[in-house]
Amino acid sequence: MAEPVNYSEDSIRSLDWKEHIRLRPGMYIGKLGDGSAYDDGVYVLLKEIIDNSIDEFVMGSGRTIEVNMSDHKVSVRDYGRGIPLGKVIDCVSKINTGGKYDSKAFQKSVGLNGVGTKAVNALSNSFTVQSYRDGRTKLAEFAKGELIRDESEKDTTQRNGTAINFIPDDTIFRHYRFIPEFVESMIWNYVFLNAGLTINFNNQKYFSERGLYDLLTRNTDAETLRYPIIHLKGEDIEIAMTHGQQYGEEYYSFVNGQNTTQGGTHQAAFREAVVKTVREFYKKEFDASDIRASIVAAIAIKVQEPVFESQTKTKLGSQNIGPEGPSVRGFINDFVKKELDNYLHKNTEAADGLLKRILQSERERKDIAGIKKLANERAKKASLHNRKLRDCKVHFDDTHERKQDTTLFITEGDSASGSITKSRDVMTQAVFSLKGKPLNCFGLTKKVVYENEEFNLLQHALNIEDGLDALRYNNIVIATDADVDGMHIRLLLMTFFLQFFPDLVKAGHVSILQTPLFRVRNKKETIYCYSDEERRNAIAKLGNKPEITRFKGLGEISPEEFGLFIGKDMRLDPVILRDANVKALLEYFMGKNTPARQMHIVNNLRVEKDDETINPTIAKETEAEEELPVAV
């Protein structure tokens, strides 16, 4: 039994605003991360600043926002009304201070609690705010929330608005980096949701005329669509939807301009309303899964004083549109029932295409019903003694505070999985071990997911058979050797996910684990190197012929060392889908041996030779060498 600790008045401590934010940053911005995931804290910092500029645009002030990013510095300049000069310091450094508490001024704003900008200030090494207002300007500079410069007001010729520059604190966001694709996706969403807004990001212009219609156009392959995109707009609601050829359901949902990546009451209501309306239109009780199979849809609504399930606002919890408004469910159901039904009556091409897609899904479901039942029974039995899965205790679909950290490592062979298993965090990290190379499933139907035992067990481990709502791990990490065979396994796994669960990749859940290629050490210091350049720098630093080890496979890394690479300093490369035409992408890399791919291999074949400290290796001439880029 532990010794009793003295508990008195001296034990009680009060933290000021910046101390509390820096001590518990996760309460304000979610997970910290290094920028390798789209929902890492560095992107939340950027979003919090841009959100304020968007609110100015919504209120009719400022049609252009400038966003610039160089190295680790971020600059955001809007042309709104500008912060009142006498309150510039208060608005960025005093909790519960802001201009959005009066609902008349900001009826449907993203953030109402006055915390966002203060969190950015407290979590930045450098934070500068400057307001331009009616020919006068005021500037203040902070370091980790501490005011270090307070300039007096002075005259200016600059247009009204606010400029904020910040550099995230690298002691909190360790080894962070901004991935341009994530920032670009965020900015596209802003312009899709705000017709008439222009955002210039690093001198590139982003603009949208048709809102959510443009969003679906950008994120889908037009050749795979079964009918033209349906685009419906009403007061405080906008919807775009279509059906494609992919498996699963794909949704983009927004509340007051906030991308609710985890859905919420509005997305659930939309899914329900589509099923109800389609059944009534065709006068047939189709299975809900057949109606929603292969759907691609976007929904944006505006809610007065929205309630989100966390400070990062990724899931809507509001049950009503406003304090005295209708329920979210009723509001969306009434809109979809009226507008979608009218659209289908007026547009026979869309109605016919939708019906054909539903009937096709129905045939496919019935075709695999038998094998699916048997496969699920086998998976249920295997789950009791599944040697492929070493599970963790916390899962993404529960309410535990660490659920964002939940990770499934997919490894090749027992040696690699053994090292990860021994060094992992048993609370949040699970391991799934492959036996050899998985099947190349390109061009196959979803029937193979049930017929192939390994794919079926992986599907059940992730719990994604019926969509992502019950996904058990936030991070799905492919952990393979850094050799030709390892690269080929990466390809095969990415093909599996892109072929049958593309929404898993598009939602940012799939990553590649980077482990060191070399260990350079002497008696005093050990340096792990992830590239030849890092190895050369380590040799130069340690000098006097240090010991150099080349890790040929994950199994050669001891469990004690492996723990260093899957903890707080874990390096992940996210799998980012740049091209909406997934079919063409997979056809090129994983289809039959096309001449185009043959020529690509011939033209890019390399012979690599290391220096004298490492045994020379010669690349093999094989298609497996053609690694699908991590950003696909």
Automatic annotation (TrEMBL):
SUPFAM superfamilies: ATPase domain of HSP90 chaperone/DNA topoisomerase II/histidine kinase (SSF55874), Ribosomal protein S5 domain 2-like (SSF54211), Type II DNA topoisomerase (SSF56719)
Tagged with keyword tRNA-binding: no
Cofactor(s) needed by this chain: Mg(2+)
ATP-binding recorded as keyword: yes
Superkingdom in the source lineage: Bacteria
Catalysis performed (reactions): ATP-dependent breakage, passage and rejoining of double-stranded DNA
A GO MF label: ATP binding
Enzyme Commission number(s): 5.6.2.2
Assembly notes: Heterotetramer composed of ParC and ParE.
Name listed for the protein in its UniProt record: DNA topoisomerase (ATP-hydrolyzing)
